[in-house]
Amino acid sequence: MATLQGMSGVDLRALVAEAADRLPLWVGKIYQFDAKTLGIRLNGEDRAKYLLLVETGRRAHFTAEFPVPPKNPPSFAMLLRKHLEGGKVLGIRQLGLERTISLDIGKRDTTYHLIFELFDEGNAVLCGEDYTIIKPLWHHRFKTREVVPGAVYAFEGSDCLSQSSEAFQTMLVESDRDIVRTLAVGCMLGGAYAEEVCLAAGVEKSAAAAEVDAEAVRGAFERLMADVGGRREPVITASGCWPVVLAGEEVRERFSTFSEALDAFYPKTASGKEEAAAEKPRLSQTEVIRRRQAEAIKGFEKKIERNQRIVEVIYENYTAVAGIIATLDDASKSRSWQEIEQILKANGDNPAAKTVRAIHPSEAAVDLDLSGERVKTFVHETIEQNLGRYYDQIKKFKKKKAGALAAMERTVPEKARTKKNLVLRKKRWYHRFRWFTTSDGILVIGGRDASQNEELVKKYMEGGDLFVHADVHGGSVVIVKGTTEHLDEAVLFAASYSNAWKAGHFTADVYAARPDQVSKTAESGEYVARGAFIVRGERQYFRNVSLGAAIGLAMAPEVAVIGGPPGAVTERAKVWVELRPGQFEPNDTAKKVVRALREKLSEDEWKGLKNALNTEAVAAFVPPGGSDIVEP
Questions:
Q1: Which residues form the NFACT RNA-binding domain (predicted)?
Q2: How far apart are CA 561 and CA 580, in angstroms?
Q3: What is the crossing angle of helices 214-230 and 9-20, to 10°?
Q4: What is the SS3 string spanning 597-612?
Q5: pLDDT tens digit sequence for 321-342
Q6: How many whole angstroms separate alpha carbon 594 and alpha carbon 58?
Q7: How many H helices and E strands in the chain?
Q8: How far apart are CA 305 and CA 151, in angstroms?
């Protein structure tokens, strides 16, 4: 029976049988909703979708709807996604009648085992093919086993029905308990299911296990597990949620699957939205500062009050304190503090000795218990000097309190918060190539390497396009996707993203040709390397094209880093920098560009653009070879 505290091994047997009926399954997304609850989206045949929810230490079942996952997935969920996403569920197994299940998932050339423990505190453990633990949700070390990375997970368990009839009978004969407890504990049935077996077998549950009809009990046991595994009648009763209806249980609600019953029985896991709603309202900057100041003032007042109390108790015990100071000061001249401490312990009945609670040899001080207040007293100083120490503390904290009160009276200007609805650029097919848009809106794309050069010509070059290439060995194949009045921008683009830039040249020749002039077919005896092409016929040449590039940040219609010829970039960018061949490597150049663009933005603007303006985004537009930033 499944209760609000958790599921039994028999309940888990029903769930595993139900899940196995849905095979084959493939692992989709994996989520972690809180410290103990995980969800796996499983894809079945005919586009079927199943949502498996597991609350470790408590329950596992399919659900109609997952809770809202956290915005940033926990590291364990990310690890499971890395290893299991897209894998095929080869099997779903239970460890005997233990509250432990394993999802065996095949991916590429290996099989992973994702094990869920529903007993005690619970756990989720990812294992390799040989059950070596890759990562558990929780690390545990027990006397008999370890659940830590590198250890081998012992996935094995007993099931009374897996024994032969003779072994089952021997187990009953050797038991010193009554039959119901033998089944409940020894066979892990639990009390309710054990009583059901006794009732079906026609034996008295209080009878000694050694004296009952073993065959009758085994038969009843087998019929129960057959019903749980294949003839389920899921119900919710007053006592819990059941995969089958037991005798004497009053049914409140029936369900077609055990998962539906469990999903209705267990309270919904709090979603991220509900948790966010329960969070405290966000305070303004002024409110946060005032709250901190108020807490500081309370702390100062407590310290002032305590030091004032210490002064009072010293005066109340003036004679006794003065005597202790004089005695210990005199004793320290001829004895060590260790000897003094031993003498005080030996004279524990002496009222003065009882007053000393602790000794601080390095400070020549003792803690005295004065009217319930622990007071540090320095024995080489007079009582007035000791009082002076506490008066100094009172003055110090009164001064701090006054400063905090004065600060609270000053108005803290609140910065106006303006929420900007920034639309980040969506990923498009051509973003993996070099690319830019001409001033009149024509897309120009170029290859980053020989493989992309090949792909552009074979897959993306069409009849109305223009083939552009720098007249140097090594460079981007540039395809102009349409007719533009700013062909000079495409030409400059081809020159700048060629080996001319890498060689440190400041100019290069560029030519253009029609798509029908470009061929991969070589003449007899010739060879055309990967990424290279033969251009036949008359070409249009552009001589001594000046190299240069610009990288900027566009704000509309989408927020994104853009790059290419300066004329095309500066028209669309809010801020930009220009590059020319120089000394800094591409990665260093990208970092310098990010810093330069950031300096052109206000602090508020920069905070809202961190996801768009970064080194990776800028590096995609940095030409090959060394570069320098052109100073304005």
A1: 433-537
A2: 18
A3: 50
A4: HHHCCCHHHHHCCCCC
A5: 999 999 999 998 898 888 888 8
A6: 50
A7: 20, 29
A8: 57
Q: Is 290 exposed, middle or buried (0-12, 13-18, 19+ CB in 10 A)?
A: middle
Q: What is the pLDDT of residues 186-244, one digit of tens each?
A: 888 888 888 888 988 888 888 888 888 888 988 988 888 888 888 888 888 888 898 88
Q: Which helix (H) or strand (E) holds 13?
A: helix 9-20
Q: Which two tokens stand for residue 338?
A: 């260790």
DSSP string covering 223-266: HHHHHHHHS---EEESS-EESSPPTT--EEEE-SSHHHHHHHHS
CA-CA distance, 80 to 31, in Å (whole number)? Answer: 9
Looking up tokens 């079945």 gives: 44
At what angle are helices 383-409 and 318-331 packed, to 10 degrees? 120
**pLDDT value at residue 277:** 46
- Contact 229/249 with Cβ under 8 angstroms? no
The answer on pLDDT for 276 being more than 50 is: no
What does the buried/exposed string (b/e) look like for 599-617 if buried means 16 or more CB atoms within 10 Å of the residue's CB? eebeeebeeebeebbeeeb
| Single-letter amino acid, residue 86 | G
- Determine contact, residues 137/56, Cβ cutoff 8 Å: yes
Res. 418 pLDDT band, cuts 50 70 90:
low
Helices (H), 427-474: 450-455
pTM comes to 0.46
pLDDT of residue 442: 93
